[in-house]
Design goal:
Helix 2 packs parallel to helix 3, helix 6 packs parallel to helix 7 and helix 8 packs across helix 10. Helices cover 44% and strands 15% of the residues. Strand 3, helix 3 and strand 4 form a beta-alpha-beta unit. It has a single domain, classed as Luciferase-like domain (TIM Barrel, Alpha-Beta Barrel). It has an eight-stranded parallel barrel with strand order 1-2-3-4-5-6-7-9, surrounded by eight helices. The chain is an alpha/beta fold. It contains twelve helices and nine strands. This is Luciferase-like monooxygenase. Pfam families: Bac_luciferase (PF00296). To bacterial alkanal monooxygenase alpha and beta chains. GO terms for molecular function: oxidoreductase activity, acting on paired donors, with incorporation or reduction of molecular oxygen. It comes from Niabella drilacis (strain DSM 25811 / CCM 8410 / CCUG 62505 / LMG 26954 / E90).
Length: 336
Amino acid sequence: MSRLQNIKYSILDLATVCQDDTLQQSFERSLESARHAEQLGYTRYWFSEHHNMESVASAATSILIGYVAGGTQSIRVGSGGIMLPNHSPLIIAEQFGTLGILYPNRIDLGLGRAPGTDALTAMTIRQAPVNIPYDFKSNIEALQQYFSKDNSHSKVRALPGEGVDIPLWVLGSSTDSAYLAAEMGLPYAFAAHFAPAQLMQAMEIYQSRFKPSAVLSKPYAMACVNVIVADSTAEAAALSTSLYRMFLGIFTNSRSPLQPPITHGELEKLWTPEQKYGVMHMLSNAFFGSKEQVKEELTDFIEQTGIQELMVISQVFDQKKKLRSYSLLRDIFNEE
């Protein structure tokens, strides 16, 4: 049996805005993608909280989760993640408690400690300086308490939310989150799609230091990576130029909507050698190619990381090509 047949596979979505599209079209594409993923047997469909980015429309994350959960039947829908320093744990417990009641046993709450935006915007959201010390663990514990039935005698209660089963995940892009997830006995998801440098070290820390908890008896790790699968290696390479341009925008501070593909010759004219190096480093855990090529590379990646689940983000400009990539990836995980 293929190693991949034992691995769950899921999708991360930023409600990416494509050039010349409206925000309404971006949301509708997300719902179409989620329905397609559900038919293919994907486990989860997560949105990530970002702010003040022209190319990303997932700022009101919990609302998008409700929109997609309401338009699907069985796939788990959640956050990858909610940036907890931006919110009161009570408000998040109420929001996700409401979602959990409306869509039972289908809602996940992934939690991150990064702002999901620039420093000025983060300060505006929080109405406080961003350099104030933040106790991520204590705020996760507050969420756990609000969701607990034992909180019914507290003076402050999450209503709705109390007693609702909402699985919590610790998200991260460094080793700090790995230590925390292991200590708390929670599932762990690593953002290797943009911050791959500490992936292997974080996975080793999480798996070796994990303490069983009431919700998890053994480690459960997930990594998120960029994946584009096409009918040929050449087609995948062409489609990937949209993603390269998006990451180049991070270095040039030009986060415009997702652009259509260009040739690699045209791409070379857009970046300096230093910018190209930076983009390639951020995308060192990206998998672009034919089904056969991506299957071989993902098999090696999963063996090396020891993950139990793979989450993919596919920044493809053409929606039909994006759905095709999801279909081919599903085939990879289900082949003998």
